[in-house]
Amino acid sequence: MSLIASASSVASAMWARASSRRPVEASIHAAPNRFYLEETPGCPLLLRAVLARADRKPGDTVAAMVGPEGGWTDRERAQLIAAAWTPVSLGAQILRTETAAIAAAAVLFQAWS
After folding, report:
1. Burial of 85: CB neighbours in 10 Å, binned 0-12, 13-18, 19+
2. Which of 52, 56, 57, 113 is spaced 20 to 30 Å from 8 by Cα?
3. Would you tell me how many other CB atoms lie within 10 Å of the CB of residue 83?
4. d(CA 80, CA 99)
5. Quick check: pTM over 0.85?
6. Distance separating alpha carbons of residues 28 and 48, to the nearest angstrom
7. What is the mean pLDDT of each run of 10 residues along the chain (113 residues)?
8. In whole angstroms, what is the distance from residue 86 CA to residue 75 CA?
9. C-alpha to C-alpha distance for 3 and 13, rounded to whole angstroms
10. Where are the domains of the chain?
11. CATH C-level class of 2-112
12. Residue 58: what pLDDT?
């Protein structure tokens, strides 16, 4: 797993898993607001999911998980759900991993500012 960005209080952690299919490590689940980008139809948009959290406030810690090119395996999805990560989408288009990470960070910064 490689660290993509670490910035201020909004997006304290954003990971890309482009080159690894290893199970998600338990130690990265410390953020109270955890979202993972999902390609499956029906997932709420990231911005809507964030705005729906009435308890969000400046200074919150937020983590966003970006999957590998080709998407998550069923096992990885199950692990993320079991660890209380919220599946969200950036829209109908499927983005490259590095583009999705930047787009998600932009949405999170805007929503928490």
Report:
1. buried
2. 52
3. 15
4. 21
5. no
6. 24
7. 29 38 48 88 93 83 86 92 93 90 92 80
8. 15
9. 7
10. 2-112
11. alpha beta
12. 78
